[in-house]
Amino acid sequence: MTTEIASTVTRTIDARGSFCPGPLMELIRGIRESAVGDVLEVYSTDSGSRTDIPKWVEKAGHGLIAVDTRDGYDAIIVEKRR
Amino acid sequence: MQRIVILGGGVGGTLTANLLVKRLHRRIERGEVDVLLVDATGRHVYQPGFMYIAMGGERAERLERPEISLLDRRVALLVGEVVRVDQGRQLVHLADGQELDYDFLVIATGSRIVPEEIEHFATEAQHFYTAEAALALRQVLDRFDGGRIVIGIAGMPYKCPPAPLEVAFLIEAELRERHLRERSELHFCSPIGRAFTIESVSEMATPILERKGIELHTFFNVEAIDPERKVVQSLEGEELPYDLLILAPPHKGQQFLMDSGLAPAPGGWVPTDRHTLAANGRANVFALGDATDLPLSKAGSTAHFEAPVVAERITAAVMGREPSGKHADYEGRVMCFFEIGDGKGTLLRFDYDHPPKPPKPNQLWHLGKVVFNKTYWHTVPKGRV
Predict the structure, then answer these.
(1) B340-374, pLDDT tens digit by residue?
(2) Would you call B320 helix, strand, or coil by DSSP?
């Protein structure tokens, strides 16, 4: 599954170790700079991202593709939908 | 002769230049190494002071000094505008036609605000990201006699992530002092699902917002302004009416970085290695401070802790050795003060591996910020702290 998603990811945001401004803020910046249909992947070591990011994605009307736990971090994959 | 060219005379560029002289002074004096700093204005501005022009009696003239006065005399300063960098030929092109060749390049060109990216920002919104705008906000606040104040963030990233929350706290305290609090509503729009990005700070700030009666709107990223209806609209599809609108404007990296292929559009942030600070995978080009694409606060403090790493890495390359010591790699260290109003503050200190644990707000940390701001000129740019 991971390999298949990785091939469609348009942008990877490595927000590991980001406490300020934080992984969700980095994703919002990435979404603002991307086009509809782009797939963004955020790496986060902040355990809060597993819940914060899906909540924002739902509220902002984008698509949550996957939350993938990797070695010491989470990869959260989001599609810009509007 | 090896030439080190530093672009930008802010915290990162100035400190890197001075630290390079400390490490390489013998080679510089023998004429083997040349350190040249290029700055667009030749004036060094202490930007954290802008908020205090709006909120605390600071004056613009106290926040600015000639860049030359902060540089070691062995650093050459060139005032000019960079229009392009040719990485292949290792050349920097200036607007007046000059070409500068380099062996090492340091990109410390900061960020710039682009309020024009949001329609009606200039006529409807106030901000405090330049001295002039902060003074204008002060004048608007002086005339304010009650109403609905909305404070929000109109673009990501923006300089100094805590600043909008600090301003909310400080304005609330001011309105109470001026007996306007009863006639005013305060709304704070957070881009994320809580008051502040750092959970521990959010836990500290949320009860303060409640106690101060500041209404928190989460997941509200400002996207547009409707001047007819006096409402601000979010990326998430909500809107809020305002009488006074205060927004952190959108920010970008410098245009010449995008024009030179050093930073991708539309953001213009330089792809930078999180530990070595090498830019675009090149061993002789470094970026620091606001100019990078690192997931860190765009703040002078970040540049302050990155500069010794850039200086060590260039020194090591000049001397033909491996980078060593505590500044061999950057570990994401940032430290900053956080105002909560009523003469109290706290301290945020963290790195890639250690989240901040802010102490309980007290007067000491507020005074710490005041002292730091006043002594900045003698400490940070010269590498004394």
Answers:
(1) 878 889 999 999 999 888 888 899 999 998 899 88
(2) coil
Residues of B in contact with A48 (CB under 8 A): 199
The single residue listed with the structure tokens 């700055």 is B39
Task: Print pLDDT tens along chain A (82 aa).
Answer: 444 555 589 999 999 999 888 999 999 999 998 999 999 999 999 888 999 999 999 999 999 999 999 999 999 999 999 9
For residue B337, the cross-strand partners are B347
B382 burial type by CB count under 10 A (0-12 exposed, 13-18 middle, 19+ buried): middle
Chain A residue at shortest CA distance from B302: A20
Instruction: Give catalytic status of residue A20 as yes or no.
Output: yes
Q: What is the pLDDT of residues A11-20, one digit of tens each?
A: 999 999 998 8
CATH class belonging to B115-250: alpha beta
The domain of A7 spans 2-79
| Best CA proximity match to B291, nearest among B82, B16, B7, B65 | B7
In CATH, what number is assigned to the domain containing residue A6? 3.30.110.40
φ/ψ of B112, rounded to 5, equals: -135, 150
- B233 contact A CB<8A: no
Q: Dihedrals φ, ψ of B106, to 5°?
A: -120, 120
Locate the domains of chain B by residue range: 2-111+253-334, 115-250
For domain B2-111+253-334, is the CATH number 3.40.980.20? no
Per the structure, the count of domains in chain A is: 1
